[in-house]
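Support request, please re-run this one:
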Amino acid sequence: MVAKVRLDNVDKVFPPQGDGAPVVAVENTSLSVEPKEFVSIVGPSGCGKSTILNMIAGLLDPSSGEIHIDGHSVEDRRQHFGYMFQKDLLFPWRTIRQNVALGIEVLGVPKKEALERAEKILNEFGLGGFSNNYPSQLSGGMRQRAALMRTLLCDRDTLLLDEPFGALDALTRSVMQEWLLSIWEQDHRTIIFITHDIEESIFLSDRVMMMSARPGRIKMELEIDLPRPRDHNILTHPHFSELKKIVLDQIYEESVKAVTAGDGD
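Re-run finished. Output below.
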């Protein structure tokens, strides 16, 4: 099977700022994500997780190495992905329906059709009653759901999600994790998910990739051989605890290195 996304020996070096030295954010990184796979990337703060996602998305170019999409080196990678950031980035002067429609409007869908499609997905995923509300009138979890719907509506078969639930409280985050899995179980789009949360990475994923302290490399990959579909009862499964310990041990070791080097938060 041809990988949906593949990185081969990718480096990313940022130029020096002022009198500083160049920053090697990612070094000699290779990874492969299969079609319909849900993969999470975890690692200490400053290890280059978001840099990898931005290179995959085409927002940054690698300093060296190659990125392949469906087996091909693609000039404009941005058109292949739906991208969601940690902040919902909803425009406060637009209604929720208008915000959800915005992505496909930018892609050239006529405004009337875009609004109709936005209304349909809002109804499908439980926000139909809030389509004419403004972001300030919704909870954080509801805004994140709207932001994810905007990403889904762009109809890309691969989603890049950069800590989308990181700013939410623990209970809302748990609900959002189950909601995301319910959507993924319907169409099995390829998802690459960035998180600091070890339990979140295990709960959601088919595989977890663990990164080293900066310069970031893929230190270890772990198959998450827990049954699907999943809900939060699986957090009490003995094997979940075993998997969590493996990831925690690796990330703790790298976090100590990051803090010692002054890279951690």
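DSSP finds seven helices and ten strands in the chain. The chain has a mean pLDDT of 91.
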